[in-house]
Amino acid sequence: AYDDAIKAPRPGVLIVHEWKGLGSYAKARAEQLARLGYVAFALDMYGKGIRPKTSEQASAEAGKYYKDVPLMRARAQTGLDILKTQQLVDSSKIAVIGYCFGGKTALELARSGARVAGVVSFHGTLSTPNPDDAKNIRGKVLVCHGGADPYVPADQVKAFEDEMATGNVDWQVNVYGGAVHSFTNPESGNDPTTGAAYNANADKRSWQAMLSFFDEIFE
C-alpha cells in the first residue's frame, strides 16, 4: 500500500500479521501507514490460502514457526527483500512491525541480523531460543506490551530486557497498564478476563509511540 501521488522514494514498513494469518487487520494497518506517507507491505507468512479459522488451527500453524525459528526468519526475510525492491522505497530506511505472532517474527528477523532501521512488536512474544542472537541486531527496538498480558508474563519481559542489554541493543519497552494480549485489535473483543481484548487507550498510545519511533529512526 502506498500513496501514488508521492513520487519520491520514502521509508518502507514491513507488517507481520497475527497468528490467524494475513487478513483485514494487517491490511488496514498497511493502508493506514500508506496514508501517512510510507510504503507498507503486509506479508503472508503462512502462504496462499492458509487462513486458520479457529484458535486451535492458528496455534498449530503458528507453532510450526515457533518450533522452527530459522524458517520464521527466512519467511520474514523474503518479505523484507520484496519490500526493498519496490521502486518507491528508500531501502536504507526500513522498519518491521508485527502483532502478536508478528511481533515475535519482527524481533526474530532483527535477531537474524537483518538490515533494518528498527523493529516494533505489539503484544508479541518476547522469548527466543538463543538470546545471544541479540548481538546481531542492527537497528533499534521498540516493544509495546500490555501490562496485564497473561501470555507474556513479567519474567519473560525481564528476560527480554536482560537479553537486549547484554546484546548492547538500543531498545525500549512501553508497558500499558491494564492492557491484555491483542490490545490493538478491535476484533479481540472487550472482555479482558479472556486474556485478549481491545484497549483503546493502549492502541492509541502504542501507535503514537511507533510514529515517534519512526521519526527517530528515519531522520
Could you please describe the fold and organization of this structure?
Strands 2-1-3-4-5-6 form a 6-stranded parallel sheet, sandwiched between helices. The chain is globular, with a radius of gyration of 16 Å. Strand 1 (10-16), helix 1 (24-35) and strand 2 (39-43) form a beta-alpha-beta unit. The model has no long low-confidence stretch (mean pLDDT 98). With 219 residues, it is α/β, with parallel strands linked by helices. 37% of the residues lie in helices and 19% in strands. The protein has helices spanning 24-35, 55-66, 69-84, 101-111, 154-166, 200-217; strands at residues 10-16, 39-43, 89-99, 118-122, 140-146, 171-176.
Q: What is the tally of beta strands?
A: 6
Radius of gyration: 16 Å
Describe the oligomeric state of these chains in a short phrase: single chain
Total helices: the number is 6
Ends apart, CA distance between termini: 22 Å
**Beta-strand percentage?**
15-25%
* Structural shape: globular
The poorly predicted ranges are none
Strand order of the largest sheet: 2-1-3-4-5-6
Portion of residues in helices?
25-40%
Order of helices and strands: EHEHHEHEEHEH
What is the residue-mean pLDDT, rounded to a whole number? 98
Structural class: alpha/beta
State the major sheet: 6 strands, parallel
